[in-house]
Inverse folding.
């Protein structure tokens, strides 16, 4: 009876060691990374500040993740997007290209709303960003990222203005679609 228990214990240890080894190799090929960017947006409406955090997994030279940020260009928005990146080269420092696509959620300040509009509404729109950059390795798991790109966000504004005139109130409704094209310069930290 003791020989059977010993044999079963040895088989369980061998199976669990084999399973652990397979899990470890899978974990090693997919590495979790967090990318945090601060940037300057420049376009026809002037300059603005942006923040981003992107979290995802890297497999060899490919990275895919989900990002969220703050975009202060013309109207304050919160972009929520999917990020895809490709690195080039075998050295520690390397070039990369990236592309983002998602939704830009409106979070407009009172100052950004129309002055006389009493019922100003904003709709969420498309958000996109594409560019290239350079990754500078600082330590084994930390890198400095410098990038330049083109970014686009869409904002739709509808406002209703009420005028009281003798005899009748007048309601004026106007709709504005903004397609905001910008250049983006970002500096980031990846760990």
């Amino acid at each position: 009876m003791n020989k059977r228990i010993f044999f079963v214990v040895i088989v369980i240890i061998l199976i669990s060691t084999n399973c652990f080894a397979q899990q470890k190799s899978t974990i090693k090929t997919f590495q979790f990374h967090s990318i945090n960017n601060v940037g300057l947006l420049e376009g026809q409406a002037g300059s603005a500040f942006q923040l981003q955090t992107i979290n995802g997994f890297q497999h060899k030279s490919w990275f895919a993740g989900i990002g969220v940020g703050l975009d202060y260009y013309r109207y304050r928005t919160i972009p929520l997007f999917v990020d895809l990146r490709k690195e080039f080269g075998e050295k520690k420092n390397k070039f990369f290209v990236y592309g983002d696509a998602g939704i830009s959620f409106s979070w407009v300040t009172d100052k950004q709303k129309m002055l006389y509009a009493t019922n100003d509404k904003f709709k969420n729109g498309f958000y996109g960003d594409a560019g290239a950059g350079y990754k500078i390795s600082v330590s084994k798991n930390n890198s400095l990222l410098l990038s330049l790109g083109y970014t686009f966000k869409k904002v739709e504004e509808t406002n209703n203005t009420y005028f009281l005139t003798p005899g009748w109130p007048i309601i004026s409704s106007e709709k504005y679609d903004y397609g905001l094209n910008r250049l983006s310069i970002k500096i980031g930290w990846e760990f």
Summary: Residues 19-27 have pLDDT under 50 and may be disordered. The first helix runs from residue 2 to 29. Residues 30-190 form a domain with the Porin fold (CATH 2.40.160.20). The CA atoms of residues 107 and 120 lie 12 Å apart.
